[in-house]
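This section describes the prediction task in plain terms. A model, or a person checking by hand, is given the sequence of a single protein chain and must write out its three-dimensional structure as a string of tokens. No templates, partner chains or ligands are provided. The sample shown here is typical of the held-out split.
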Amino acid sequence: MKYKRLTKEQFEALHKEFSNFLATQSIDKAEWDSIKANKPEVADQELDVFSDLIWEGVLTNAHYLEHFSKNHIFLFHCQEKLIQSIVLKALETQVDFMQKEGLQWLSDNMFTDTVEIHIGKKEYQIERNMAIFDLITEGAILSDGQLYLQINGIIQS
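The expected answer:
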């Protein structure tokens, strides 16, 4: 398995897609029920293959990630050959970017000496989708890129 198995909730949300996946292998509901009951290792393999297919599609289409912690915001732009990052750090320890007030504080203090901004970029050290998957497993979430683009636009001007 390349990534990780989807959760039960994710499988439930993708029930129709999973049914279609099984149908492409000529497995109907009765046969799937039989496989689960009599060949659990085959059922596990099917779940793993489907999970990897879903992850591959999601990661291929991922362009922006965000990772918020108490005093840091990590913004990533995932391009084909490299990943660009903007890291915002609050130097005032009481600021909590996990709370709405923390984001308001950032808006009010963006250009003061209480916020450090680091910009970086690097080529992927491993295959692109695996690098993005690693960031997600470390807590990053997929994003529409609005915050990255907004902050990047302010920095560039």
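For orientation: The helical segments are 8-13, 15-23, 29-38, 40-60, 100-109, 128-137, 146-156.
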